[in-house]
Amino acid sequence: MKASSFSLESAVITKQQREQVSRAVGILNAGGVVAFPTETVYGLGADATNIKAVSDIYRIKQRPMNHPLIVHIADFSYLHEWAQAIPDSALKLATQFWPGPLTLILKRNRRVSDVVTGGQDTVGVRVPSHPIALALLRSLGQGKALAAPSANRFGRISPTTAAHVQKELGAEVNMILDGGSCTVGLESTIVSFVGDNPKVLRPGGITLAELESVFGASISMMHRTDSSTTRVPGSLPSHYAPTTPLKLCATEQLWQYAQKLTSQQLKTMVITWSTIQRPLQQNEYLQHCSMPNDPESYGRELYAILHQLDQVGFDYLLVEMVPDHSSWLAIEDRLQRASHHTI
Ligand code: TXA
Ligand code: MG
Questions:
Q1: Pocket test for ligand 1, best of 33, 136, 229, 232 (most atoms within 8 A of CB)
Q2: Among 117, 172, 286, 325, which is 20 to 30 Å from 14 by CA?
Q3: What is the reported pTM?
Q4: How many Å lie between the centroid of ligand 2 and the Cα of residue 256?
């Protein structure tokens, strides 16, 4: 994925969208909570300098207070207002990938509230590229930014449309800004610069190869089992889960497994990306959905498909494992977590 593909900041927003943004700014400056589109997923935003408003985000999301939020800023030049002791390598990444789906974890500037950082000494910061998010951030008052997690309940699938937010949190937010479907569809890549070497805490919209091309060296990934020692909810094994049990299955065993489930009269949706032959006919227990075979399109559609299928009442979502290649890493990560509760 090229950074340029999300450099939408020059995109023009319509007059109606501008009016919506103005209304959102009024609500945010008065301490309200507004859901807004980003290129990755929709965020649940509050003025990062307003402790009460930020606390409301935790309440609405039903998220534990010690899990930190990302601070969304309008421009790279504001980074120093939120973070300090910023290493050159972090600046390099920010220059290359902002605005875009990259979050940097840095030592926090002292003015950043404990409510935002979950009491940690670090802060997550990013500049989103969605034109509505940027218009919103640029219109907030001087020195302000938006603290925002994904606009879903803790542990559930992130929203990639305004309708997803409306369905899950509509009754509790003051406003939802509609910016269409998110173009990346998976959350930002999180890189931590705390400690000796930079580390990827969450794979996302920027691939490892893209990060490494800027670093000129390889970068390590936090292992999934390290997560018990961190407070990164996106790294809890059971995150991003649909309510329907989801099982990942290797291509070779996929249809055999589908046969086994349907023979037990379990209503099963098989989700594939490859063009393997489908030996079984669709019937009242078996349905098949074909996903794109390139990671960018697959990532863009994944959450919307999971949201949709979760409404249907399947007993199982049986998902074909995705290719073992770094360009699929973020998708593989989300599918593994979504499948965590499934026996
Ligand atoms: O793409 C995204 O990153 C979206 C959009 C809305 O920007 N946001 C998002 O936020 O995914 P959330 O809260 O759902 O996930 C952010 C992750 C969490 O796992 C959080 O713990 C981690 O970032 N995080 C935030 N601040 C951190 C910090 N200081 N140290 C370690 N992890 C941090
Ligand atoms: Mg989230």
A1: 232
A2: 172
A3: 0.94
A4: 34
